[in-house]
Amino acid sequence: MIKIRLSRGGTKKRPVYKVVIADSRRARDGRFIEKVGFFNPLLPKDKKERVGLEAERIKYWLGQGAQPTARVARILGENNIISMPANANNPNKAIPKKERKKEGDEAAPKAEAPKAEAPKAEVAPAAEVPKAEVAPAAEVPKAEVAPAAEAPKAEVAPAAEVPKAEAAPKEEVK
Predict the structure, then answer these.
(1) Which of 51, 76, 105, 164 is an S-S bond match for 81, by CB 3.0 to 4.6 Å?
(2) 2-89 fold
(3) Which pTM was predicted?
(4) In the chain, what are the domain boundaries?
């Protein structure tokens, strides 16, 4: 697989990166197909010399199926070459670790309680649905009118039925 990634250069504790097109099986700083830019993390973000990219060549390689790494995708997104990746922002990173742990401890019991209740609720409708197949068909129009949060629950139960119904006739035929 072809990747758009960073190749490290510079001296010890003074990194400078090349943005390269390389085979994913090659070493990080090893052989590459083409150099399409550079990145200097030591410069401030507002400096123009921090990042240099050949947008046309990057767009060409993206069209050929090259996949950017997470860091390169973020750099490309900041330079408006691609749309910003969804998982690029980590808001918890700015919070000190001690406070994160405190929040995590408080959030963990709250998160576990609904998870424990949710499987019980899902099991009961699944047991009731196979007894009367007409009921889910009547509930489908209600799911369309219902809010979006309730709609997936209504859709999950009929989807679970379909494979079971299809599997039973196949076994009988054999």
Answers:
(1) 76
(2) S16 Ribosomal Protein; Chain: A; (3.30.1320)
(3) 0.51
(4) 2-89, 129-174
